[in-house]
Amino acid sequence: MKVEKTDMLPQKAEIIEIKQETKTNLNIKTFRLRFKDRSQRDNFQFKPGQFMMLTVFGVGEAPFGFASSPTEKEYFEFSVKEVGLVTEALHNLKEGDIIGVRGPYGNGFPLESTEGKNIIFIGGGIGIAPLRSLINYVLDEENRHKYKKIQLLNAFRSPEDTLYCDDYEWWENTENTEVKYTIDEPCEGWSKCVGFPHTLIVEELNYELPDTRVFTCGPPIMIKFVTEKLRELGIDPAEIITTLEMRMSCGVGKCGRCNIGHYYVCKDGPVFTLEQLGEMPDEY
Fold first, then answer.
1. Are the CB atoms for 33 and 17 separated by under 8 Å?
2. Partners of 194 in the beta sheet?
3. Domain 5-105 CATH (choose: 1.10.10.10, 2.40.30.10, 1.20.1250.20, 2.60.40.1120)
4. Which alpha helices (DSSP H) does 74-213 contain, by range?
5. How do residues 90-126 score in pLDDT, each as one tens digit?
6. Contact 204/153 with Cβ under 8 angstroms?
7. How far apart are the C-alpha atoms of 166 and 63, rounded to whole Å?
8. 267 touches 1 (CB < 8 A)
9. Radius of gyration of the chain (CA)
10. Nearest alpha-carbon partner for 126 in 258, 14, 223
11. Residue 61 DSSP code
12. What is the pTM assigned to this prediction?
């Protein structure tokens, strides 16, 4: 991929809505953006699983995967967990403020080869954000017929840490779609699943083999145990897909910070199959 100087220049985008997702010290907000320039809005395209570099002017930039579906034409969204300098600066912004965006970058989820398959989504915490982009894409009324049974297992630390509550009614009422929610520990008022995702795969998911593809994203320890359980159940590593955003910096494969073996997370990913992850060195 040849990178032009203009590709590295952030374009102006307006924050049109900010939603506080969590109610705990796990501070996550979803930012809804649109380009200031109308022509950029009209021509902008991306795939679920791709990412953008967001810039807070005078502070810095960081990569974030899309949390919205490309079927939404008037805006795009990112969910941001407050963990450092740039994310803190983002959290301090308000609606109407201007930030810089560049991209989209990365390979995105394999949409065409997923058509005609059963789909299982297993997400944990902020890892549900990039999955939401794909979930909302496949559940869109123009796309739902392309896929078989869809199951979602969404894991959170506590009820106060759940994300995207406004989507739940839509997800749950879509035909041939099953949605489960789980938290780490039981608590008063919670009547849904309790436990870590890998312990609930057998109990809660009525998976159908073959023709099943799994998309999972979350903390590394969650991905490790979930993928191990899926392997035990006989799901092909090539059908288990996750997304990495670890260590990315420039977004275009020039800085080398996200290099793992012969892969660059920003260029060759951030979407990888478990089969590909198996080829990576132990540092992953």
1. no
2. 183
3. 2.40.30.10
4. 85-91, 128-139, 168-172, 197-204
5. 999 999 999 999 999 999 999 999 999 999 999 999 9
6. yes
7. 25
8. yes
9. 18
10. 223
11. E
12. 0.93
